[in-house]
Structure formats: structure tokens, C-alpha cells
């Protein structure tokens, strides 16, 4: 006999409306905690000043006033975009799913007639919607007041940036889902969580532009991992580091990685459901 699990292959219109309702509820949830959002934006802005002064000092000491191919205005813009994307893409998300797995509360998620991965994605997109108008926009506005930021010259850059940030959020969600799902086997996922924070902070473009690294290593990161598509690609799109055709190809790469990582998350979830059923959970 095949065990019946909560993974659903083809959502109908009712299920899609449910996902939309989940996203809207998550938007309202984050909009409720205004003081926490203000504190997060203040913290991001403080670190934005620190990072910006450090990288501008590096650019000031380099030939031509540029560092790794970034002129001073684009480098400052890169920093403030990164500070805004940190909370929007949500690299450092609390391990809520891992905690639900540890306590057994995840069984309630598996009993619902919807795909758990897509349900959690819908909730994350609701969070993304609120973060995009707060944690993304406000730090960039703060940076624009204090520094000379770069304004995109090509109109196509703006829709590409919006699509890039959305794709980065989906890719990051799938990566975090996989990290959280290790709790199905390990029960305590703190080790994978710490590893994810360390690797994503260093290799996603959040701490510094990946162009600072040797070219072969940067190329390997773009081809073999989804990490550069979290912060580096959206930031490069907005500062127009590459021609529009190249930026469109980079966003297409994000779409491909989003599809791959979501497929991996759904595969791992199906394996985890089999494990829960076999263990009698």
C-alpha cells in the first residue's frame, strides 16, 4: 500500500486562491509588528553606513577611484541595495519549519490537502511583499540622502530589478527550506543553519561584491551554486554593471535556479513524508 501524504501535484483554482489568502495573511502578520520592522531598518541603515565607508575607502585607495570595476557611486549603491535586500530576500530567516519538525507540529502541515512547499512559499511571498515596501525601499532612501548613489540609465533596468528581486526571494526560500528540512533526519538543524548563514553571508555578495574574488572562483560560484543569485545579481542589475542583454541573461539564470531549487525542495519533502509515515509519525 502506498502511504497518502500531503503533497499535491496539480493545484486547482481553489488551492491557488488559498495560496493567495496565505500570502495576504502573512503580509498582514508582518505589518502588525511595526516596531520590529523599524528596529530592523535602523540596524540595516547603521551597518549600511559602516559597510559603505569601508568599501569607499577601498575604492579611494584604488587606481581611478574604483574597486573591482565598481566606481564610487555604483559601489555605494551596491552597499545600500544589499542592506535593503538582506531583509527582503531574507537570508537570515528564523528556522520556523525546523522548529515545527522538531516539536512534531509539522504533522498539522502534512495533513492539509496542499503542497507544504508551495504553502510555505506563498507565506514567504506575503512577507516579501511587505518587506519590499519597507526594508528594501527605506534603506536605499537613507543611502540616497547621505551618499551619491547611481541612478540606472536604461528604463528596462527597473522591471528587470523587480523580477530579479522576486526570483532571488524564491531561490533563497528554496535554499532555506532545504536547510530546514534537514531536521526531518537530524532533529536538531542548528549545524546546517549555522553553515547556511556562514556560506550565504560570504558567497552571496552580501558582505562584499563577488568581483573581489578571483575570477575562476566567481565563475564557479555562478555556474555551480545559487548563492550569487541571492544578492549579487539583483544588485548588479540595478547598478547596471553589465549591458541590458547580459542583465536579462542573469535574471534568466535566476529563474532557472528557482525552478531547480523548488524541485529539489519538493523532492526532499516527499522523501521526508515517507520517512514520517514509515516511522509512524
Automatic annotation (TrEMBL):
- Indicate yes or no for the key word Transmembrane helix: yes
Q: Name one Pfam family in it.
A: ABC2_membrane_6
Residue ranges annotated as transmembrane are: 38-63, 75-92, 128-147, 159-187, 194-224, 244-265
Q: Does the keyword Electron transport apply?
A: no
> Which top-rank group of organisms is this from?
Bacteria
Q: Which InterPro entries match?
A: ABC-2_transporter-like
Q: Which UniProt keywords apply?
A: Membrane, Transmembrane, Transmembrane helix
Question: What name does this protein carry?
Answer: ABC transporter permease
Q: Which organism is it from?
A: Planosporangium flavigriseum
Amino acid at each position: 500500500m502506498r502511504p497518502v501524504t500531503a503533497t499535491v501535484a496539480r493545484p486547482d483554482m481553489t488551492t491557488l486562491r488559498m495560496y493567495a489568502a496565505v500570502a495576504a495573511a502573512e503580509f498582514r502578520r508582518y505589518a502588525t509588528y511595526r516596531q520590529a520592522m523599524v528596529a530592523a531598518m535602523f540596524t540595516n541603515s547603521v551597518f549600511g553606513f559602516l559597510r559603505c565607508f569601508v568599501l569607499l575607502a577601498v575604492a579611494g585607495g584604488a587606481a581611478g577611484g574604483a574597486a573591482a570595476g565598481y566606481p564610487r557611486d555604483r559601489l555605494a549603491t551596491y552597499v545600500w541595495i544589499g542592506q535593503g535586500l538582506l531583509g527582503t530576500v531574507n537570508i537570515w530567516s528564523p528556522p520556523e519549519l525546523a522548529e515545527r519538525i522538531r516539536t512534531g507540529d509539522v504533522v498539522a502541515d502534512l495533513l492539509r490537502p496542499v503542497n507544504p512547499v508551495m504553502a510555505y512559499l506563498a507565506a514567504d511571498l506575503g512577507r516579501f511583499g511587505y518587506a519590499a515596501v519597507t526594508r528594501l525601499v527605506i534603506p536605499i532612501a537613507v543611502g540616497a540622502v547621505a551618499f551619491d548613489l547611481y541612478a540606472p540609465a536604461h528604463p528596462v533596468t527597473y522591471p528587470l530589478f523587480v523580477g530579479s528581486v522576486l526570483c532571488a526571494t524564491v531561490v533563497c526560500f528554496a535554499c532555506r527550506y532545504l536547510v530546514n528540512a534537514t531536521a526531518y533526519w537530524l532533529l536538531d538543524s542548528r549545524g546546517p543553519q549555522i553553515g547556511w548563514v556562514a556560506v550565504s553571508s560570504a558567497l552571496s555578495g552580501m558582505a562584499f561584491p563577488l568581483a573581489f574574488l578571483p575570477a575562476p572562483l566567481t565563475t564557479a560560484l555562478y555556474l555551480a551554486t545559487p548563492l550569487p543569485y541571492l544578492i549579487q545579481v539583483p544588485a548588479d542589475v540595478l547598478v547596471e554593471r553589465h549591458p541590458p542583454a547580459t542583465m536579462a541573461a542573469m535574471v534568466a539564470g535566476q529563474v532557472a535556479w528557482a525552478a531547480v531549487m523548488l524541485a529539489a525542495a519538493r523532492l526532499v519533502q516527499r522523501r521526508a513524508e515517507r520517512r514520517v509515515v514509515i516511522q509512524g509519525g
